[in-house]
Write a structure and sequence with these properties.
Distance between the termini: 20 Å
Pfam family, one: UPF0223
Protein name: UPF0223 protein ACFSCZ_03155
Strand content: under 5%
CATH topology: Annexin V, domain 1
Shape: globular
CATH class: Mainly Alpha
Helix content: 55-70%
Structural class: mainly alpha
Mean pLDDT: 94
InterPro entries: BH2638-like_sf (IPR023324), UPF0223 (IPR007920)
Strand order of the largest sheet: 1-2
Organism: Siminovitchia sediminis
Family: Belongs to the UPF0223 family.
Order of helices and strands: HEHHHE
Length: about 100
């Protein structure tokens, strides 16, 4: 995909890499599927960097605008899934 990830100039290089990893995990949930534990780990690190709900919502909405992938729906599905489950989001436009 050809788009830029939403990042903050306040983050360190390591934090930027970790946020991008989280968004790549969201992409993988839509494109190939991902293990719940792997997505959970990426999300937990994302929340260390972006602890506020309002900031999380803004950044995830920005990501959805450019990518078409919903981090909110993916995280919601992850939270409802069981440990060890493989998550696969529906194809875009077919939710």
């Amino acid at each position: 995909m050809e788009y830029q990830y939403p990042i903050s100039h306040h983050w360190t290089t390591e934090e930027i890499v970790d946020v991008i990893h989280f968004f790549q995990s969201i992409e993988r949930a839509y494109e190939k599927g991902i293990n719940r534990s792997e997505l959970m780990q990426a999300y937990r690190r994302f929340k260390e960097i972006v602890p506020g709900k309002a900031d999380e919502k803004n950044i995830c909405n920005d990501f959805e605008e450019v990518s078409g992938y919903s981090a909110y729906q993916t995280v919601k599905k992850m939270k409802q899934a069981e440990d060890g489950e493989f998550l696969r989001m529906p194809e875009l436009g077919k939710e």
